[in-house]
Design goal:
The chain is α+β, with helices and mostly antiparallel strands. It is built from 1 helix and 3 strands. The longest helix is centred in the C-terminal third of the chain and has 8 residues.
Length: about 70
């Protein structure tokens, strides 16, 4: 996705969306601005407004070049 290889503070999240943690393999990493998202990471997100779900899904979807 567009976020792989980027630091958390470089990701333009919609208003009211926060990254709480990253699951990387068996490790849970508390989100800090300097953490870089890697392929296969799972991000724990908090949304204040559920209408932002589609916008967040678009941000994290895999691009066509992935296949």
């Amino acid at each position: 996705s567009k976020v792989v290889g980027r630091r958390l503070d470089e990701i333009d999240l919609p208003e009211g969306v926060t990254i709480g943690a990253i699951i990387r393999g068996d490790e849970v990493i508390i989100a800090h601005s300097h953490i870089v998202v890697e392929a296969e990471d799972h991000l724990v997100l908090f949304l204040v407004d559920k209408t932002k779900i589609k916008e967040v899904e678009r941000l994290f979807q895999v691009g066509f070049t992935f296949f």
